[in-house]
Structures are given as structure tokens and as C-alpha cells.
Design goal:
single chain, 406 residues, alpha+beta, 2 domains, six-stranded mixed barrel, 13 helices, 12 strands, 56% helix, elongated
């Protein structure tokens, strides 16, 4: 019997039990839709994290003093004095893989303008910090080298600080705000960046010359950290190695001594977060894949029922010349048609539900072509795998016993 006739017979058998066929497909439909949606959410989250890290500076390197132990208590790295301006100057001038470099000092406190106040922190940096952190001036200007050298009391502010200190929409440029009783003149404002992937408000920021924060706010001579930018993302590892070697030499550390500083890169953060999202994506896909397994078991169950119901039909067809392979092919085609049709509906539902998730919950999604083909392939294999055994049993029925079956 040719394949065309077998398909027609299979379609006729399924059309005679439309509701049962649809309910059998339901497990496959839900499984395929779940896999596509879960993978879209996982991949979307990964791409969103990479994008946000790139906006923060994908080749950024952060150097901080190493924390110390005193009396069994670990001290804050902010209080350590292992990083000096000489370290910053040497990194800027004596390294090959660094393009930008900025010292960093910071202090928390209360900003006040008129009757308005807002708790935040002020960061002391130089002009290179803007390029390192991918920050952009919206109005005004960044402080220049002369203002850094003279420890001028000037600053640039982010949108969150402006919103809280100037709620009535006043122009902040030229206004004097106080930070712990120290007056700062606003000379620039930053473009909004929003929240990053870790939920931190990137607009809650005030930048001032590092010399100003050092001398006038903190009264210290050391620096609390260094921000640097590698010449490219691929050069980050070489730049990190180069910085470590330079600082160990500057700090005269023996070969057996531990580093008295920490060097971290955005590349490490990106790798860690990507690894986490990959694990979550795999977990979500596995959970969704259980639906496919349940759908496959449903196909096997229904095919067993179908074989039992049509035992006399099988006996009749075999008695007039149908071979075992024809019976096997017929029931196998029925199973594949159920899973194939369910797969098509599941793909459509998965794509629609992915966009619904984006629309309703504003979650980032990214539908991958491979997830659609993989889900479709798996559901087809599921139909063949779970439909083969009942079909084989049907093909091995004895024609005489089948005709006697009540």
C-alpha cells in the first residue's frame, strides 16, 4: 500500500475522533509552546544583561585596595591606604593595554538645596571617568584639568539627584548645592541611563574632581580605587595581568605575598551573569520539556486505545492482504500527524505567548530560530518514539484473533 493511501486512512481515522485527537495534541502543544517561551525569556535576559554591561563599559577594569583583618574583624577596603596617586599615574603612563584611567574617591552624605535634601554619595574622579563608564553630558560641561588641579568645588549631577533637589523643574546649571556643609556649583548634568541589570540606579550620581573630594571632603592623600578601560574588550585579560604586575612591583610585594589590592573586570561580571542566566534557561527549558514527555505518554496511551478499538478493522485489513508493515505504517503515521500538527500549533502559540510576556510584563525576550526547530524536531521524534510501540503491537496481531475480537 502506498504512503498516500496510508496518510488518507490516518487522516480519516483522526477526523472521526477530532476531540480526542486535539486533547492528545494538547500535551505536545503546551510542551512546544513552553520550551519556545522559556528559551525566549532566558535568551532575552542574557542579551539584556550583556547590553547593560556594555553600556556600563564592557572593557572597564576596577582596582580597589585589598581588605585587611584587624583583631579578627575584616576591615572595609574603603579605609585601606594601599593605593596611591603614584599607582594611578603609573597605570596611565606605563601600561600597554590601558586607554583611559581615573582615580576614584567617594563619600556618602546629604545633598541640600534650599528646603530640599537628598541622601546620596559624591564620587571624585577625572574627565576620563566619563568615557570609562559610558556617561554623557546632557547640559553644561565636565570639569577641566585646571579645576582638578585647584580642587575646585564644582560637580556634575545625574537625573535622580536633580529630580529630588529641583522638584519644581528649576535649571540646575549654575546652582550651588551643599554636601555636608561644603558648597558645590553644578556645572553639568548627565543624560539618563536608568537602572542596570542589578537594580542599581545609574542616575543617582554626583561627580566632582577627585582632588576636591580628597582634600575638602575626606581630607586624605590616598585614593580608594582606580577605574581603567582596556583598549578593547579582547585586551581586558592582558590589561588585568599588566596592572597586577605593575601594582605588585610598586608595592614591593614578595613572590609569596598575597596581593594587597583587587582587580576586577566587567568581563568577569559578564561571564558570571551569563553563566547564571544559562543555568536558569536550561532549568526552565527542562521544566518545559517535561510537558513534551507528558504529551508523548498521552500519544502512546491514545494509540493503545485506538489499536484496541480498531482491532476488528486491523484483522479485516490484514485478511484482505494488508501486510504487518502497512498496519505499522498506518498507526505510526497517525502518531506522527498528531505530534506534527501539535508541534505547528505549539510553535505558533509559543511565539505569540513570548510576545505577550514582553507586552504584559515588559520582560526582554529573544526568540531563537534554533529553539523553534529544536522544539519541532523533538515533538516529531516524540510522536515516532511513543507511537511506534502501539503501532508495532497492532502490526503483530493475528488476523483470525483480531476478527474474533469483540
Amino acid at each position: 500500500m502506498n504512503i498516500g493511501n496510508l496518510i488518507k486512512i490516518s487522516l480519516r481515522a483522526l477526523s472521526n475522533n477530532k476531540l480526542r485527537a486535539f486533547l492528545t495534541m494538547l500535551g505536545i502543544i503546551i510542551g512546544v509552546a513552553s520550551v519556545i517561551t522559556m528559551l525566549a525569556i532566558g535568551q532575552g535576559s542574557k542579551e539584556s544583561i550583556r547590553s547593560q554591561i556594555s553600556e556600563m563599559g564592557s572593557n572597564m577594569i576596577m582596582i580597589q585596595p585589598g581588605a585587611d583583618m584587624k583583631g579578627g574583624v575584616r576591615q572595609s577596603s574603603d579605609n585601606m591606604q594601599t593605593l596611591k596617586l603614584k599607582d594611578f599615574n603609573d597605570i596611565c603612563s606605563n601600561t600597554t593595554y590601558i586607554s583611559k584611567c581615573s582615580p576614584s574617591v567617594a563619600s556618602s552624605g546629604q545633598f541640600i538645596f534650599g528646603a530640599n535634601n537628598y541622601p546620596s554619595s559624591i564620587s571624585g574622579v577625572n574627565a576620563d571617568y566619563m568615557d570609562i563608564r559610558k556617561l554623557t553630558i546632557e547640559d553644561g560641561t565636565i570639569f577641566n584639568e585646571q579645576q582638578i588641579a585647584s580642587a575646585a568645588k564644582v560637580c556634575i549631577v545625574g537625573k535622580t539627584v536633580i529630580k529630588n533637589l529641583f522638584p519644581n523643574g528649576e535649571e540646575p546649571i549654575g546652582k550651588v548645592i551643599r554636601f555636608n556643609k561644603i558648597p558645590f556649583t553644578i556645572i553639568g548634568t548627565l543624560k539618563a541611563k536608568g537602572y542596570n541589570s542589578m537594580g542599581m540606579d545609574q542616575d543617582d550620581i554626583v561627580l566632582a574632581p577627585y582632588t576636591t573630594v580628597q582634600k575638602r571632603v575626606l581630607a586624605i592623600t590616598y585614593i580608594q580605587g582606580i577605574f581603567a578601560s582596556a583598549i578593547s574588550e579582547d585586551a581586558t585579560t592582558n590589561a588585568t595581568t599588566e596592572i597586577k604586575a605593575l601594582l605588585r612591583s610598586n608595592h614591593k610585594l614578595k613572590d609569596t605575598a598575597d596581593d594587597d589590592f583587587n582587580v576586577r573586570s566587567q568581563q568577569e561580571l559578564s561571564t558570571m551573569l551569563t553563566s547564571t542566566t544559562d543555568m536558569m534557561t536550561i532549568l526552565l527549558a527542562c521544566i518545559a520539556g517535561i510537558s513534551l514527555l507528558v504529551g508523548g505518554i498521552g500519544i502512546m496511551n491514545i494509540m493503545y486505545v485506538s489499536v484496541k478499538e480498531r482491532t476488528r478493522e486491523i484483522g479485516l485489513r490484514m485478511s484482505i492482504g494488508a501486510k504487518g508493515r502497512d498496519i505499522l505504517s498506518q498507526f505510526l503515521i497517525e502518531a506522527v500527524l498528531i505530534s506534527f500538527t501539535g508541534g505547528i500549533i505549539g510553535v505558533i502559540l509559543g511565539i505569540v505567548s513570548s510576545f505577550m510576556v514582553k507586552l504584559l510584563f515588559s520582560w526582554p525576550i529573544s526568540i531563537q530560530t534554533y529553539s523553534v526547530f529544536l522544539s519541532f524536531l523533538v515533538c516529531t521524534i516524540t510522536g515516532v518514539f511513543f507511537g511506534w510501540y502501539p503501532a508495532k503491537n497492532a502490526s503483530e496481531l493475528d488476523p483470525i484473533e483480531a476478527l474474533r475480537y469483540e
